[in-house]
Write a structure and sequence with these properties.
By secondary structure, the chain is of the alpha+beta class. About 35% of the residues lie in helices and about 25% in strands. The strands form three sheets. A five-stranded mixed β-sheet has the order 7-4-8-3-9.
């Protein structure tokens, strides 16, 4: 299959007693910071409200993206388990509002900025390439961790047909297709 990232795969294997393995990463769907009432991160107002997903994994990714933009500092070591309690510096006194991830596109007009998952942004008609003020970098911990991977039953990962499929998924032709079709909402990681 080709729909999951490694943390999901690991959790699925543990919960179901399965032995599925990753053949390799293909793409990730970057988080983006989208404008709401405000549209300039460089001139962010003191006390601005930024909406982030309220579930642990997605909230951590959102906070890491805000930290990468220099808007906040997150405690060293918090990584992809960071919560608002791990914010160590907040020089603009930002108000971080936790909202269910799927609701973020609907609430963006009510806040200064919203950090939205790539899939929800795309479904809501946002253009990641044109509308997002900042996105996760392909080299970020989140992009590397949450890249979608090609998955097979353990022992099949070196099967010639599987290797041919992975080669096709990571070809220049597929990279060009992803880049021309998804406008930054899906990013090749190969």
């Amino acid at each position: 299959n080709y729909f999951q990232h490694t943390p999901y795969l690991d959790s699925f294997n543990e919960e179901n007693g399965t032995h599925l393995v990753s053949v390799g990463a293909v793409h990730y769907e970057p988080f983006g910071i989208y404008p709401g009432k405000s549209d300039d991160l460089a001139a962010i107002a003191d006390g601005a409200t930024i909406a982030v997903p309220n579930d642990t994994t997605n909230e951590a990714r959102a906070l890491q993206l805000l930290a990468a933009q220099g808007l906040i500092t997150v405690r060293d070591g918090a990584g992809l388990t960071a919560t608002i309690n791990d914010i160590t510096e907040n020089p603009h006194n930002l108000k971080i509002q936790e909202i269910e991830a799927a609701q973020l596109p609907r609430t963006v007009q009510d806040v200064d900025f919203a950090v939205i998952n790539g899939n929800y942004a795309m479904e809501a008609g946002f253009s990641v390439g044109k509308d997002a003020l900042a996105t996760e970098d392909a080299s970020s911990e989140a992009a590397q961790t949450y890249a979608n991977v090609l998955v097979v039953k353990e022992g099949n990962e070196n099967d010639p047909a599987i290797q041919a499929l992975y080669a096709a998924l990571t070809s220049d032709k597929v990279k060009e297709y992803i880049n021309s079709t998804y406008d930054g909402a899906v990013v090749p990681i190969f």
